[in-house]
């Protein structure tokens, strides 16, 4: 049985995709962008965000960018620490397939228009969807600055279903992967139902970026989201030393991380549908950057 509220959206997205579908295959092509160094490009002034001319060049073995704003002066920054590796990577640069139905159809200069526009060479491969800006932690280090906005951002179930429909209607290729984020997305009131709806609407890959607390501590919750079809747990994982979590997260959390891993192993051992785990550490110089090897070996 389909979830309440999804029947109409699923039918609508099928119609949109049927109308946009083309019989010919869509293939990414080698990039038309200029290659080699040095070269001119465009960038943003970090102070006023105006588009300004910039030069990419090799300096001290690194790929660097030098740019000048008439108002705020010159900036020189590292874009890639190994210029030789960057030049090798250029050989594998491909333009994407673009969008046939962009959100912005007449953009003149990137990035001043909001949303995917007609100037984009690529299309959405993985879309992050913030389910809430609430969190069950108050980390000293927080990528999303959760709990700090002074208001709660939390789209309704119906709004999220509409987002799914728009993503699956992207053409020539529907969005294949979504990742729920936040805040802490697992505290969204209807999280298992949202995961199930995403799978019903055809997303092959459904992920969640999580601290793992609810998955580890709430009886039955891990099984609910696994049965709903969650494919990947993007688990915040700062290492195997408790002091890392006390400093970076404000409380001991190693047992929580290990419990999530244990639940995955338990379900896999029973040949039940089980999400994979991807460890996501925050590496800080002179804090835990010397532990990258430990994390890789444990993984």
CATH topology-level fold name of the largest domain: TIM Barrel
Total number of beta strands: 11
Proportion of beta-strand residues:
15-25%
CATH architecture grouping of the largest domain: Alpha-Beta Barrel
Computed CA radius of gyration, to the nearest angstrom:
22 Å
- Which ranges are low-confidence, i.e. pLDDT below 50, for 5 or more consecutive residues? 1-5, 19-24
Number of domain units: 2
- Spell out the helices and strands N to C: HEEEEEHEEHEHEHHEHHEH
CA-based shape? globular
First CA to last CA: what distance?
Answer: 37 Å
- Specify the helix fraction band: 25-40%
Q: Write down the overall mean pLDDT.
A: 89
CATH superfamily of the largest domain: Aldolase class I
Architecture overview:
The chain is of the alpha/beta class and 299 residues long. The chain has two domains: 7-26 and 124-298, Aldolase class I (TIM Barrel, Alpha-Beta Barrel), CATH 3.20.20; 39-92, no CATH class. Helices cover 29% and strands 20% of the residues. It has helices at 7-20, 83-90, 157-168, 191-200, 213-217, 221-228, 242-249, 254-269, 292-298, and strands at 29-30, 39-44, 51-59, 62-69, 73-80, 94-95, 126-130, 177-181, 205-210, 232-236, 276-280. The strands form three sheets. It has a five-stranded parallel sheet with strand order 7-8-9-10-11, with helices on one face. The chain is globular. The two termini are 37 Å apart.
């Amino acid at each position: 049985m389909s979830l309440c509220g999804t029947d109409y959206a699923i039918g609508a997205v099928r119609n949109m995709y049927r109308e946009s579908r083309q019989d010919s295959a869509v293939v990414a092509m080698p990039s038309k962008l200029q290659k080699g160094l040095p070269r001119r490009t465009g960038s943003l002034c970090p102070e006023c965000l105006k588009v300004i001319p910039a030069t990419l060049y090799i300096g001290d073995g690194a790929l660097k960018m030098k740019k000048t704003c008439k108002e705020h002066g010159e900036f020189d920054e590292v874009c890639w620490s190994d210029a030789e590796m960057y030049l090798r990577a250029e050989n594998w640069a491909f333009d994407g397939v673009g969008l046939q139905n962009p959100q912005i159809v007449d953009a003149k200069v990137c990035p001043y228009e909001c949303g995917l526009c007609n100037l984009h060479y690529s299309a959405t491969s993985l879309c992050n969807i913030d389910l809430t800006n609430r969190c069950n932690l108050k980390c000293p280090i927080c990528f999303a600055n959760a709990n700090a906005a002074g208001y709660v951002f939390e789209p309704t179930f119906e709004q999220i279903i509409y987002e799914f429909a728009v993503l699956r209607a992207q053409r020539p290729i529907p969005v294949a992967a979504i990742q729920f984020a936040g805040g802490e997305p697992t505290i969204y009131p209807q999280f298992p139902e949202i995961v199930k709806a995403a799978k019903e609407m055809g997303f092959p890959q459904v992920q969640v970026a999580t601290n793992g607390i609810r998955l580890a501590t709430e009886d039955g919750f891990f099984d609910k989201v696994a049965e709903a079809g969650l494919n990947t747990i993007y688990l915040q994982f700062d290492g195997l030393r408790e002091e890392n979590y006390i400093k970076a997260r404000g409380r001991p959390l190693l047992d929580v991380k290990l419990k999530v891993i244990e639940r995955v192993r338990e379900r896999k051992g029973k040949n039940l549908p089980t999400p994979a785990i991807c460890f996501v550490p925050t590496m800080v110089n002179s804090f835990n950057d010397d532990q990258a090897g430990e994390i890789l070996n444990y993984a």
